[in-house]
Amino acid sequence: MHGVDGRVAWLFAILWLPLAAAADTSPGSPSTGPSDGRAVELLSHELAVTLIPARHQLLATDRITLKALSPQFQQVSFSLNRALRVTRIQQRRGADLLPLAFTVQAPGTRPEGMAEREASLSGGEEQAQWVTVRVAAPAGSDRTLTMEWSYEGVIHDPPREPRHLRFVTPSETAGHIGSEGVYLSGETHWYPDVPGARPSYRVRVTTPEGWEAVTQGQQRHKQVSGTSGDRSVTADWEVTVRTEALTLVANRFVKASREWHPPSGDKIEVAAYLFPDDAQLADEYLDASIQYLEAYTKLLGPYPFPKFAVVENFFASGLGMPSFTLLGSGVVKRHYVQPFALGHEIVHSWLGNWVFNDPGTGNWVEGLTTYLANYYYDELTGKAEQAREQRRMMLLGYAVYVRPDTDYPVGRFRRKSDQKDNAIGYQKAAMVFHMLRREIGDEAFWAGVRKLVADYGSSSAAWGDLERVFAETARRDLRWFFAQWVEGAGAPSLSIAEAVTSGDGVPGGMITLRVRLTQVGAAYRLRLPLAVKVEGGTVHATMVAMDSADQVFTLSVPARPLSLQVDPDFETFRRLAREQLPPMLNLFVTDQERSMVPPAGGTEAERAPYQDLVARLASEKGGQEAGQKPVRAHATDQDAAVARGSVLILGGPGVNRAADWAARGCGSGVSLGRDRFTVDGHTYEGPGMALLLSCRHVDRPDRVVTLFYGLTPPAAATVARLLFFYGWQSYLVFRDGTVVARGDFSSPSERLEVLFGEGSG
Ligand SMILES: [Zn+2]
Question: Is the pLDDT of residue 34 over 50?
């Protein structure tokens, strides 16, 4: 399915992004520092970890350095995975090691005297237990004390299949050590930790020979030891960028790396840790990584970590950690190097893994990352048409997935769990940054982005901080902008109420065009591009400022206007009404009421390719949209025609009697046969052809009727599996499963366009 075309690739972006999103918000959430009444600050870990995959086992020591913030403290509580057993804790005093008494809290309970707030962990609560250590207060003037832990246990939680079809959460395992791979994250609690701590780390990892461990920071050295047949590899890692959660992975990687020399600063190691089967992809990932690092260093400032690595994972994931990204094997094999994929992960190095979201407020990180990676890379590389299409898709995503009654403000988005969250927190938020850039200009916008990274690196920022930064670089108040686009839900809904010309016929004179624009509901403050096409073909572009619900603009053009279009290039975020969108499968998918007509004619072999789809739709107990009803099955087109919602018809003429009815809403440009079909002026025939066609419902134009059929059973079967990836267009023609033609039945009202007829005025 990869490589079919750009559109399909774009859909994979939606499919895979949530993984990164969730990764940003959990391990990276910053602490509030030790100023919240805690008695100690955890400064550093020196971990020595032996991983024994065959036995799911971990053996570890950890030298922890703490700083006393209050001279009277007597005990400290640490979180640690409940499957790990502490064998010894000692305190270093000069040259001596003194044993310390400790108590282990029963799982699910917290130490006496510890407030619930203090005990709050940033994930994996159910994995953790509390270990409380009694200490002798440090005598030294620097008030630091060092304790040495020894602990061991089995971490065995094999990754489960993702629970959701579209949105995979990263916590399908709370940590795993096994022959298929090792994954230990902040949620695993694989080392003793104090909530809210942001220490530095040194990690010595020992694995069987042939295995390689990867963590944050930089690898210092590596050596092989032991006797033949029982050799092990020990690698030392240093993590100087303080972080709340350390992720450690290990597998039988083939490592490839290069040195990248940024325009300023030290060299950066760019590495790929791939499975032997995929090792030949390393160059592709290294080339793309360096290309993105170069581009985004110019936009965002120096890269904040000593390395960047693409690491292949043994379960499906798209996790972004400081200095590396952990990508599921399936994703790696699909050449995940596009801007929306690897580019997005790399932008998270600055946004999300360096500047964090303020955990108490909304998530702006995904919107800005999506804008810079998924969208802006096209602009940056001169692909204006693709950039325009991205903007259109952002408006379409919102129109299709966000119903006005379930909408919420961009500022309230935290993390994505469905398509609606994606449309608000990623797509609308990205458009908010686009409009901000247009509002304050490129210079102030990019200065603001760099200032944000420079001022908030290694700490967190909230929407309010962004407002302050951009107001400063733009040297103007932006309160109205953030109130309108970040704090308010919804989007402007525009229409052209009137467009009339006068002054026609005066030789050499200008023609006046009077345009009345209206907004339904709350009036937004907008800067709207208008494009007037005049006789002779030239287009006159102008910008108008709208700030009320009903406003008249007067334009002068040198020749008789042929058409007027408002915001022709989708520069303004607005709501496209469902009935104005081109008919498409996604309008069926998101309709509150849906029906289908399964194939009832033809032979069993002719009906077979559709049976999985029929079963899948029939088993849906209401879709992902709130309030959506289960899909109803109808026997005939007459039943479907009187059903209230949108309709999906499976099987073509001869196999489904409703097929011809489906095409009626598309008018005379479409005709269907058993061995050929015509759409948009082209006729297609041959055994490999299949058609996915959506038309307006003849009687209810706010609904769609979608038809899917192949000219032969194999032609239908190849597409059927992936049908719902093709939701965004009015028709798609497939040959042997590959898209060969596509298009939209768009309407002037979707385009916010008025056509001036002959002699109009
Ligand atoms: Zn992301």
Answer: no
Cα 14 off chain centre by:
6
DSSP 3-72: TS-HHHHHHHHHHHHHHHHHHHHTTTPPP--GGGS-SEEEEEEEEEEEEEGGGTEEEEEEEEEEEESSTT
pTM above 0.85?
yes
CA of 347 to the centre of ligand 1 (A): 8
Ligand 1 centroid, distance to 593 Cα (angstroms) = 32
Print burial letters for 284-323: b (CB count within 10 Å at least 16), e (below 16): ebbebbbbbbebbbeebbebbbbbbbbbbbbbbbbbbbbb
Q: Is the pLDDT of residue 103 over 90?
A: yes
316-352, pLDDT tens digit by residue? 888 889 999 999 999 999 999 999 999 999 999 999 9
- H helices of 655-712, where? 659-664
What is the C-alpha separation between 10 and 596, in angstroms, rounded? 27
For residues 110-122, average pLDDT:
79
Q: How far does the centroid of ligand 1 lie from the alpha carbon of residue 215, in Å?
A: 20
CA of 373 to the centre of ligand 1 (A): 9
| DSSP of 89-111 | EEEEETTEEEE--EEEPPTT---
Residues 6+ apart with CB under 8 A from 346: 289, 292, 293, 296, 308, 325, 373
Please answer whether residues 189 and 78 qualify as being in contact, where contact means their C-beta atoms are separated by less than 8 angstroms. no
The whole-number pLDDT of residue 39 equals: 78
The alpha carbon of 452 is separated from its chain's Cα centroid by a whole number of angstroms, namely: 21
Q: Which long-range contacts (CB under 8 A, 24 or more apart) does 618-623 make?
A: 623/589, 623/590, 623/594
CA of 535 to the centre of ligand 1 (A): 46
Q: Give tens-digit pLDDT for 283-297.
A: 999 999 999 999 999
Q: What tens digit of pLDDT does each residue of 520-529 get?
A: 988 999 999 9
Tokens of 201: 């780390």
Summarize the confidence of residues 688-695 as an average pLDDT.
Answer: 96
309 token code pair: 């690595």
Alpha helices (H) in 695-735, listed in sequence order: 713-720
